């Protein structure tokens, strides 16, 4: 047969659309052509495939005109993932393997010049897409990628270390099976039990107000800004938020792992552990929200179902902070390119920390050296719309040495997490989602505001000149406080505490 079709998949955001690798061998001037919107890395597949076939002792059809088409042609394709399907297409079209036996399989893998198979990024996204499409195909993947893909329930995965292993697997039944290793089925890996590797809240002494805010944020999924002088323990608190969040469901763990796999950062020991991403403030907007060509996920997507910690918030480039506005509302980020739009999930919980002024001591016992102008300019780096999207702001005061040394160890993360999980469960029972995710009408129907509490909130919103968003966000925080207190309705005391968390930055009253 001189025409052969092999199935594979491209990556488009977290999606993995099907790609058919069509290989045609014809008589004519010897040539090896690759068409179908392939980028440079894919075009280099020609050289890798040629060398891999020859070094593996297989025949490369030198005297043929080889045309490889990656269909659909308008789908951008990147990376070395098509090396294996192209090589198999050539082998099948030249009769060295049984083309009919390739049906029902999908392939991805980069070839080394000796024919070894190297892992490809996004194997989990491929397995998830296959699972979602209800296709029954078996995946043939290199080591590393195969174990990732096998995490998807019901995935049928074969692991191949070398091109020859795949060739042995698909040789015509009549041929004498050559000796050596073939493809090995990968049994669905049992991921290690999610052990909490997060630092414990017991290490944080004192700071009762900030600990309480952290607990509310964890229970309801609210975004939190910690403000305080240097060394007050803001980073310590932020690093402990992920350890207070409820355990991940299987679908959350799969989504989070799939994004990490797209960025080539997945490791089995991170399975089902809520990620904390803490990009440095010198990070660009692209590093933070994703982008590039082909588009890759940024830190906000790598923090999907976990925590995004932005320390020294005002030091981040304005463009990077403004780019957070859309995902903070929608939980997704769309990266538009001329050819295609890629969408990545980004349902992260934001925790940010900042000093109140450049010297850091405004409002604390030590004298602040900053003029009002300098303070205003520093705090002005955070735009109103961004601050409006932060649900809770809490001050973390400096601790006196005596207080720090004498304070007993704080409550453990496990104890606080149990309360957060119970409150989250109440919200899920009531409305099927965390309080932070409530929108529009849902807020009115699920918050169950007592009449006096409604009056209190109206007054506070009017006096403090809040936007509609700020009022709604305060209501959602009040709902979480009521959930933590196991109260069916939201009372004045819950609203009053929530109002406390929506105050202006210090020094700008
Ligand atoms: N409440 C606390 N309990 C125990 N240790 C603390 C506490 N606060 C601060 N520390 C100690 O101080 C160190 C610095 O804390 P951390 O880095 O969290 O401060 P920070 O507020 O983030 O400072 P910066 O604004 O400079 O980033 C910690 O590593 C810890 O040793």
Rg over C-alpha atoms, rounded to the nearest angstrom: 28 Å
Q: Give the number of DSSP strands.
A: 19
Structural class: alpha/beta
Unique bound compounds: adenosine-5'-triphosphate
Report the sheet-strand fraction: 15-25%
Low-confidence runs of at least 5 consecutive residues: none
Number of domains: 2
- Tell me the helix content: 25-40%
For the residues shown, what is the average pLDDT? 88
Summed up, the helix count is 22
Provide a quick synopsis of the model.
The chain is an alpha/beta fold and 509 residues long.
Keywords for this entry:
509 residues, alpha/beta, Ribosomal Protein S5, domain 2, Rossmann fold, 2 domains, 5-stranded parallel β-sheet, 15% strand, elongated
């Amino acid at each position: 047969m001189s025409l052969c079709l092999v199935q594979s998949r491209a990556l488009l955001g977290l999606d993995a659309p099907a790609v058919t690798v069509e290989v045609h061998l014809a008589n004519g001037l010897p040539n090896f052509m690759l068409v179908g919107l392939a980028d440079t890395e894919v075009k280099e597949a020609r050289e890798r495939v040629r060398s891999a076939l020859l070094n593996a002792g297989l025949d490369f059809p030198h005297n043929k005109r080889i045309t490889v088409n990656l269909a659909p042609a308008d789908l951008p394709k990147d990376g070395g993932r098509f090396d294996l399907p192209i090589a198999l297409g050539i082998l099948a079209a030249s009769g060295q393997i049984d083309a009919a036996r390739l049906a029902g399989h999908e392939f991805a893998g980069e070839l080394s010049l000796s024919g070894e198979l190297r892992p490809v990024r996004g194997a989990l996204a491929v397995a998830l897409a296959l699972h979602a499409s209800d296709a029954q195909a078996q995946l043939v993947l290199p080591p590393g990628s195969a174990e990732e893909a096998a995490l998807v329930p019901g995935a049928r995965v074969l692991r191949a270390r070398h091109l020859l292993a795949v060739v042995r697997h698909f040789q015509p039944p009549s041929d004498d099976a050559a000796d050596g290793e073939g493809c090995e089925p990968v049994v669905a890996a049992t991921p290690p039990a999610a052990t909490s590797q997060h630092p414990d809240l017991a290490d944080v002494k004192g700071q009762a107000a900030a600990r309480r805010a952290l607990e509310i944020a964890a229970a309801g999924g609210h975004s939190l800004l910690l403000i305080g002088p240097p060394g007050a323990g803001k980073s310590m608190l932020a690093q402990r938020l992920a350890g207070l969040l409820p355990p991940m469901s299987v679908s959350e763990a799969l989504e989070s792992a799939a994004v990490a796999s797209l960025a080539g950062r997945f490791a089995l020991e991170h399975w089902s552990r809520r990620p904390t991403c803490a990009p440095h403030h010198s990070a660009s907007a692209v590093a933070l929200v994703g982008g590039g060509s082909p588009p890759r996920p940024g830190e906000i997507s790598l923090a999907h179902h976990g925590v995004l910690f932005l320390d020294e918030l005002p030091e981040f480039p304005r463009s990077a902070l403004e780019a957070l506005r859309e995902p903070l509302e929608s939980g997704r980020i769309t990266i538009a390119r001329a050819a295609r739009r890629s969408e990545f999930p980004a349902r992260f919980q934001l925790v940010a920390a900042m000093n109140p002024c450049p010297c850091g001591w405004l409002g604390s016992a030590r004298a602040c050296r900053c003029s009002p102008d300098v303070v205003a300019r520093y705090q002005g780096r955070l735009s109103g719309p961004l601050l409006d999207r932060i649900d809770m702001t809490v001050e973390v005061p400096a601790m006196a040495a005596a207080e720090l040394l004498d304070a007993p160890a704080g409550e453990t993360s496990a104890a606080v997490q149990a309360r957060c999980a119970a409150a989250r469960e109440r919200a899920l029972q009531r409305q099927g989602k965390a309080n932070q995710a409530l929108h529009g009408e849902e807020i009115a129907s699920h918050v169950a505001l007592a009449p006096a509490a409604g009056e209190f909130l109206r007054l506070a919103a009017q006096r403090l000149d809040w936007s509609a968003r700020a009022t709604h966000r305060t209501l959602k925080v009040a709902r979480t406080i009521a959930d933590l207190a196991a109260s069916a309705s939201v009372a004045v005391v819950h609203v009053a505490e929530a109002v406390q968390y929506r105050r202006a930055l210090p020094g700008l009253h």
